[in-house]
């Protein structure tokens, strides 16, 4: 079994505290064996990572923002599992939303930041289906938001 905490430390990463909802929703819902985690916006030590890809943010910065979203998704998944990583079987699907300027078409490259983190931390269990969508704006001016579906035991 993969030691998620050890893998995170090896990557020089820490999971943040699970973020509280910004509006009238819950951070996650379990439906049978599926865990649906609400969209997590990009955050760092300074707060929300804001920007618009193709305008004031490049793909590399956007991918780092998507990685932040993935860390927040994992924090919510850990909370949903009561801290028992052994209950997490698979990342089923990620949906990434990228604040995009007109003419910006590299949303998949941005969301790779989240996808690659899931595989780096969870191995084959991190491989997933995915959508990457460009949007005009995200909550709090965030550059990226990612939601996830996980299979639990």
From TrEMBL:
A Pfam family (short name) is: YjgF_endoribonc
- Which InterPro entries does the record cross-reference, listed alphabetically? Endoribo_LPSP/chorism_mut-like (IPR013813), RutC-like_sf (IPR035959)
Provide the Endoribonuclease L-PSP/chorismate mutase-like domain boundaries: 5-142
Identify this protein by name: RidA family protein
């Amino acid at each position: 079994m993969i030691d998620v905490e050890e893998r995170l430390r090896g990557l020089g990463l820490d999971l943040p505290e699970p973020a509280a909802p910004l509006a009238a929703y819950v951070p996650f819902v379990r439906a049978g064996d599926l865990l649906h985690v609400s969209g997590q916006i990009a955050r760092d030590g300074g707060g929300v990572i804001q920007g618009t890809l193709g305008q004031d943010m490049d793909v590399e910065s956007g991918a780092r923002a998507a990685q932040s979203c993935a860390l927040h998704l994992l924090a919510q998944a850990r909370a949903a599992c009561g801290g028992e990583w052994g209950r997490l079987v698979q990342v089923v699907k990620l949906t990434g939303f990228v604040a995009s300027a007109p003419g910006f078409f590299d949303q998949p490259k941005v969301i790779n930041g989240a996808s690659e983190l899931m595989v780096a931390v969870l191995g084959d269990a991190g491989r997933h289906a995915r959508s990457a969508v460009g949007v005009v704006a995200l909550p709090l001016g965030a550059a990226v938001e990612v939601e996830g579906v996980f299979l639990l035991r």
